[in-house]
Amino acid sequence: MIMNNLDQQSIARPVHHQTLVWFAGICGLLVLAGALAFFSLRSQVHRYADMAGQADGEACHCHVFNQYIVRVPQRDRVQAELLRRGVQTGVHYPIPIHLQKVYEHLGYERGSFPEAERASREILSLPMYPSLTEDEVAYVCRTIATFYGK
Fold first, then answer.
1. Domain ranges of the chain
2. Fold of 2-147
3. Structure pTM?
4. In whole angstroms, what separates CA 144 from the centre of its chain?
5. Residue 143: Cβ within 10 Å count
6. Which of 18, 48, 102, 121 could form a disulfide with 11 if both were Cys (CB 3.0 to 4.6 A apart)?
């Protein structure tokens, strides 16, 4: 299922594409070798966990992340401070799923899932790309720690 977005924050309707599946498979095979090399570079996500003191000892460093999302109190202020210091961030899921237009027919309203709503106000996507250096990760972590007075 591919979601057809009216904008970057809301889902209008689910769209199912089943044509050309075989073509997509062939294209996928053609880029697999390059993709594996690309994904190996993206293992820098563990730098965030290590520097934040959240690494769990013998953690497997083989997972590939395309986003590194943290929950932070005062998200909008943290995001503004990071931007002021030259760090671009994002908010990938600003609207909880139960409040998306595509699910209006289910009758959920604000307050139906308070934890999901709280998470949508606190999540912040930190920089994540293959050429991200350890110094850059350290800078992001220091900036966040400084914001909270640590």
1. 2-147
2. Aspartate Aminotransferase, domain 1 (3.90.1150)
3. 0.63
4. 17
5. 16
6. 102
